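S1.2 Input.
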Amino acid sequence: MNLAAPLGLLAAGLTVPLVVWYVLRSRRPRVTVASTFLWNRSERSVQAAVPWQRFRPDVTFWLVLLALLIGALALARPFLRVEAELGDHTILVVDASASMLADEDGPTRLELARREAEELVGKLGPGQEVSVVEAGTRARVLLSAGGDPGTIRSALRKVRPTHGPADLVDAFTLAAALERPGQSTVVHLLTDGAVPDTAAAALPVGTVVTAVGSDRPNLAVSQLQAVPLGAGASQVFVQVRNFGVLPTTGRLTLSVDGEDVVEEELRFGPRATVDRVLSVAGGDGEVLVARVEASGTDVRTGEEQGDALSVDDAAYAVLSAPREVAVLLATPGNVFLEAALAAVPGVTVDVQPNVPQDLADVEQPRSGPRSQVDLLVVDRVSAPLAPTVPTMYVAPTRLPAGVTGAGEVELPTLTFQDAGHELLADVELAGVQVAAATPVTAPALTPIVSGPDAALVLAGRLDGTPVVLVTFDLLRSNLPLQAAWPVFVANSVSWLAGPPVTAPSTAGATVTLPAPPGTTAVVASPPGGGPVRLDPADPRLTVDQVGVWRLDYEGEPASAAATTLAVNAAAEEGDLARERPDPVEARADAAERTAGAAEGRQSLVRELLAVVLALAALEWIWAYALRPALRRRRQRRRGSRGASGGTPATAPAGAGGGRR
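S1.3 Output.
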């Protein structure tokens, strides 16, 4: 135990006046006398007040003495050295992912996290501050260095769970930015899952990780895809998972625009997956919904089984009709490009040596002359200065306006691949080797594959038109020989010239919305939320709610019809029995845990003051209740013993004759 104010022990000197008072105070011992007549000689009672008495402590003395000593110790502010729960600045990072919506027999996991946070707020001392960071699909600071407990609790109530995973890396980055030099900072992460490896590197040193929640049963529609077959029919792939540790049953229902078309009973083993491939009838743009409902019984024991998370009980998809895509390939000859494009369903390819001045004059084998080109691929030829249709550039001899290139980098190394980009879905480029690439400067485009010396693949919009730029010659690389090549081409066709977004997106993902030429704004309306306006030059949207989003276009676009976007819950959020951190705390690394942990003080002042109050109450009870009761009891006993020989009386000593 340590003392923050050792001078407070000087208050223990008050015990000296207490002892002196007990020695000097007048004491009039009670004695039995024969008659009260002797009390008339009261002048002799003064002589009984002997100034110096023999020290005779009683119960009251010991209670007061103990209270004085403990009070003096409290004034010295004793404390124990512990790992700090609160620092000068405490940062609360609250997980706001979809799994925090899980029901925990009444409260949600998010509510449990709030309670844990409010307990910490209740321990705030003078001068201590708290910041609150919401770790949702996009992290945000809800409070920066607030010292008022009411304000802090209000910020905690503003935490709203999203339907996607938490961006912990972004949240930890914000927490690190809130730290101040010269202040001891303690970071608390309140979550229901272990910190993933991808976020562990950004975990601030000394972070206390508090787990909430328990293993809960959950049935989820983890995947839903619809592929148009033609003639108003679609083939549907649906996957349902049991994240619980017990077997159970459930009912799967498929509906198209609110009308049930399929209903099936499913049986699940512990943590099992059931896949179904079904055919449904539905028109272009109609919404397909797959729902699963737990039957409520364990197939072995018949016991009740629930479903703790409702956000993943339904998945959505927008049905579409097969679409033909007319591709113009301008190339001196590239069998790899031509074959990969032709292998994409619905794509027809017209090969020409150069890009025509007017794409409207191009004859397409699909539907005759003057048919519009849906996608232009420029391979090692001069590119138009301004793209008029979605375009894929492959090492063009002349770059479009807004893109500049200089020199050539030989044998560039591939060190970065944006796995989250739609163009690189299921594409692995680790084994790709390139002979040479052209370093380019393109402010409007984003590198999605790059090395330290040059970007190899860029994507974005030029003058509002989607483009993909490959800065190296395919024939001088091994990319066309990789299994990733046809997948990359198919993704490029879908991203550049595919139909409006119909493939379901995952909550928390950032998608690029279609923006036809002439659009002045794209308005995205989430289910049950306010609309979001996007600039058509950068129509990227982070979708954080499960359901069907409506997309409207302002201005005079070529295609002004509203479209829809289906968003489904992330599959990993449905696992409510996944690994959780230690209930007390965890650290990113054991060495860092020892070296970087902040030291805190656990004050004992409140406990000591409580003991002082208890002693004061006990002294009062003894002086005014217990001691008078004991005295009356002794008097009754004495009265009963003297009943046969007269009634003796008591008088102060020195008041007259009698016996001592």
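S1.4 Remarks. Residues 251 and 265 are 5 Å apart (CA to CA).
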